[in-house]
């Protein structure tokens, strides 16, 4: 079974600090990686996608990919209370199927 | 531009009853998906349709059937509901299958008694 693993949290981070969310995946043939944000009672929405090793920045968000270690992370700089949500890591595996992790609950402390 | 819409938003069924969850998208996307989300289990793919006229099983297809009615609409049917099917159901669409961004509908919260 090809899996995507995330720490379920909750991860508590003070307002203004950097939140670091991590994800590992088992299918070495995976090529595309996504981070979705899901507010309580709402549907997931895409915030970042990354396809190549290294960092990809978009505003306060940075996605990091290390295919050799089968590891993808999301950094949120200057965390705001509105960032409090569950963050889902998703991986497109070699069968062209997207597999979602169970999500990490992030809580930004005012 | 409504994006992805789902009906109903909430539903309560008794064991053994049947129902159809409706999904429509107005983004001219080729691919559509049905997921269920349970506490502690994340999103799990039930069925998907890579393009109009095709459907394929996902991770948890048992107890469900789907119909890709046309390019816009993708329905999910529970023929004989069971308490294990109590969940939140999300429909999603993407321009193509694979690495394209998936856009999610608002979800249907289903309870089976």
Describe this structure in words.
The complex is a heterodimer of chains A (110) and B (113). Chain A has strands at residues 4-5, 11-14, 19-25, 32-38, 45-50, 54-58, 61-66, 71-76, 85-92, 98-100, 104-109. With 110 residues, chain A is an all-beta fold. In chain A, the strands form two sheets. In chain A, strands 2, 4, 5, 9, 10 and 11 form a six-stranded mixed sheet that branches. In chain A, strands 1-3-8-7-6 form a five-stranded antiparallel sheet, with no helix packed on it. In chain A, a hairpin with a 2-residue loop joins strand 6 (54-58) and strand 7. The mean pLDDT of chain A is 94. Chain B has 113 residues and is mainly β. Chain B contains no helices and eleven strands. In chain B, strands 2, 4, 5, 6, 9, 10 and 11 form a seven-stranded mixed sheet that branches. In chain B, strands 1-3-8-7 form a four-stranded antiparallel sheet, with no helix packed on it. In chain B, a hairpin with a 3-residue loop joins strand 4 and strand 5 (42-49). Chain A binds chain B through residues 8, 31-32, 34, 42-46, 49, 51, 88, 92, 96-98, 100-103, and chain B through 35, 40-45, 58, 90, 97-99, 101-107.
Summarize the structure.
Chain A has 110 residues and is mainly β. Chain A contains no helices and eleven strands. In chain A, the strands form two sheets. In chain A, strands 2, 4, 5, 9, 10 and 11 form a six-stranded mixed β-sheet that branches. In chain A, strands 1-3-8-7-6 form a five-stranded antiparallel β-sheet, with no helix packed on it.
